[in-house]
Amino acid sequence: MLYYLLYQLLFKEYGSASESIFIKGLNVFQYVSFRTGLATITSLLISLFLGNRVIRKLDELKVGQEIREELSAEHQAKKGTPTMGGVLIIGSVILSSLMWARLDSLYLWLALVATTLFAAIGFADDYIKIVKKRSLGLTGKQKLAGQLITALGIWAVLYFLTNYAWNLSIPFFKATAETNPAISISYVGPFVYLVFMVFVLLGSSNAVNLTDGLDGLASSVTFIAMSALTALTYVASDARWAERLDITHNPASSELTVFCGAMVGASLGFLWFNSPPAEVFMGDVGSLAIGGALGTVAILTKQEFLLPFIGGVFILEALSVMLQVSYFKFTKRTGGVGKRIFRQAPLHHHFQISGWKEPKIVFRFVIIAILFALASLATLKLR
């Protein structure tokens, strides 16, 4: 909205004839990099301004975190801490994006709507678990159905309303950046790509959900991952950078940079209240939305194969659960007794049970997340 007021209205209407330095300076609002910085700052400030109010409201509604009995005494002490704080993140992202992005971008609206729908699934799960006092929340099938419908909706918009490139852009192989179906070596077509899209969206949303288990862990890793994705989105939308780096150029995704910047600021603002000892947890409403946003932006910018680098910690957490469950079932079927690889999954609980203090786990996971993010940016020159 402010983009249209400051640039489209004031500058274009009066800039060329005005002698005012202020009016002429409004020209800077045409640049997506400048608006991304403003979106980051705005969402951060919104989070900080509304944080205590949201926490008080959640406390009044008695939306307290339930803690599994098998977890440590350190975890049990968190019982009753307000959860569903992810509404603060999502609200900040939406408000900031609407303020600074160009609203004629279909990709921006796709990201906003997809994030909101994933948040709605998480909200329903949290609401049923906490308010309705049903311990399991949504069933696995209900949650999966909601995620599948959202993924199908994103695919349908891309299929019917855009000229989306149905190729798989693979890092280290610059030939896969070619989008022309006639000559592309990685063109798979829209229907095969739908299967791939579902895998990416469900994987990313559930991976973030599994990571949200320690004070400040998911929010700090989100800040790092989204920072890297902001840079990748910017270069993918800029013709000069895309050509120089041999990546799939998609000018329609430029306003997603503003969205990613807003997510960076919102996650940093939420971390202010979520840092140890946490005053609020994001809940499924936050974690599913963040994961959905990561997957959606990666799909729209053709960075799907970089997600294991961008969100490496999220992937490790998800893999630890998959390996634990698979190995337990395999050993129980073959030997009669189920065995474990880790003391407990997700991975952060393994280290917690091993005796590591919570802040040490979070800080070390943050260091790993930074290394993964740097690796994702390094791939730009390895094509």
Compute the CA-based radius of gyration: 22 Å
Order of helices and strands: HHHHHHHHHHHHHHHH
| Major beta sheet summary | none
Q: Which spans of ≥5 residues are poorly predicted at pLDDT below 50?
A: none
Q: How many structural domains are formed by the residues?
A: 2
> Structural class of the helix and strand makeup?
mainly alpha
Query: How many helices in DSSP terms?
Result: 16
What does this entry look like structurally?
There is one protein chain. The chain folds into two domains: 1-30, no CATH class; 34-381, no CATH class. The chain is 67% helix and 0% strand. The chain contains 16 helices and no strands. α3 runs antiparallel to α5 (86-100), α8 packs antiparallel against α12 and α9 (217-237) runs parallel beside α16. The longest helix is centred in the first third of the chain and has 29 residues, at 32-60. The model has no long low-confidence stretch (mean pLDDT 88).
Structure keywords:
globular; about 375 residues; 2 domains; mainly alpha; 16 helices
Topology:
Layout: H1 2-15, H2 21-25, H3 32-60, H4 73-76, H5 86-100, H6 106-131, H7 140-161, H8 190-211, H9 217-237, H10 239-245, H11 256-274, H12 283-300, H13 307-310, H14 312-335, H15 347-353, H16 358-378
Helix pairs in contact: 3-5, 3-11, 5-6, 5-11, 5-12, 6-7, 6-12, 7-8, 8-12, 8-14, 9-11, 9-12, 9-16
Summarize it:
By secondary structure, the chain is mainly alpha-helical. It contains 16 helices and no strands.
